[in-house]
Amino acid sequence: MKLKSALHVNGFLVLAAWLVLTLVFGVAAAFGYAAAADGGDTTALIAAIVATVIVVLLLLSVTGLIVVNPNEAKVVQFFGRYIGSVSEPGFFSVIPLTDRKSISLRVRNFETQKLKVNDADGNPVEIGAVVVYRVFDSFKAAFAVDDYEEYVETQSEAAVRHLATTHPYDAHDAGRTSLRDGAEVAEELTVELRERTEMAGIEVLEARITHLAYAPEIAQAMLVRQQAAQVVAARTHIVEGAVGMVGLALDRLTAQGVVELDEERRAAMVSNLLVVLCGDRATQPVVNAGSLYH
Known about the structure:
By secondary structure, the protein is α+β, with helices and mostly antiparallel strands. The chain has helices at about 10-40, 40-60, 140-145, 150-165, 180-195, 215-255, 265-280; strands spanning about 10, 65-70, 70-80, 80-85, 90-95, 100-105, 110, 115-120, 125-135, 200-215. The strands form 3 sheets. Strands 7, 8, 9 and 10 form a 4-stranded antiparallel sheet that branches. It has a 3-stranded antiparallel sheet with strand order 1-5-2, with helices on one face. Strands 4-3-6 form a 3-stranded antiparallel sheet.
């Protein structure tokens, strides 16, 4: 069984017809009972009974009137049997004596709790995400799962846990995707949630990580590690630039014939330039003024 449209007609037309017919047959029943009471006319009594039955049926038909709001669907059941859904907004009449369940088709968002899990490297992290979704199949949302809202919440937390265990917090190796790679991780989480919730008639529009941090017990140690990594990266960049500058200086001095350097002086100059360029403190120049005594 799958989603289908339930038979429905304009509710205003049905209501107008119901008022007219109820009034006509109600008056007919009243006159029939009056005539049967006065003259004992059996035909009038039978007509009055028939009119009464019709009035009762007309009263039962009122139970088929429904109001469907925008971005809402009514799932219609007749004594437990699914006969269709009405998703068109308006005032309608369906089969009387049916049970109707409202399913919202509006876009919703759900934010998971801050979950504490171990990432791919075994480090405990805190992670949370927000999921934006909507119902696209009212039949599946009503009958495929007990509670589609609870189902989305449970599957969202399971998907976030799985995402955290398959990626590291920081990717120290090239080619690995870390939890901090927002766009890639969000796309992966969205695709996984779509696969998990499709059977419940749910379409996941977007899923993004809203909270990501190391667990408190290792946060300080990881901060020191990150700072050390940044220092190493900065030093590496400085050394690469310094080596290039030293090579350029020596080439320019040689090309312009400013000074002739042997290997020993050349090595000393390279050492001095590297100290100046790579040092993290201001250098103190030393001026050789020569000897004061002869």
